[in-house]
């Protein structure tokens, strides 16, 4: 949320109008938003890799199958990712000026 507020202040819509000259700023803000949403999943990879030794040990002893490990981990990450994206978009969408009305 703090990074979204900083991004909103950098690309504040009071300095930009809807024209071809400011289209690069809008595209830069859109690229940065997509890039930040993509980067939010990177810390999850290190935690997943940290759990791999115990996964391989359980797999070799036939305790758990692979799907019993992968499906719950994936399903639990989906609501957190959606909430994170919703917070980012709700803060930056109107502030950057992708649309001039709040109702959209």
UniProtKB/TrEMBL annotation:
GO cellular component entries: plasma membrane
Signal peptide span: none
Transmembrane residue ranges: 23-40, 61-80
Superkingdom classification of source: Eukaryota
Topological relation to the membrane, as annotated: Multi-pass membrane protein
Keyword Transport carried by entry: yes
Subcellular location: Membrane
Domain ABC-2 type transporter transmembrane: 2-103
Molecular-function GO term, any one: ABC-type transporter activity
Keyword annotations: Membrane, Transmembrane, Transmembrane helix, Transport
Protein name (record): ABC-2 type transporter transmembrane domain-containing protein
Organism: Aegilops tauschii subsp. strangulata
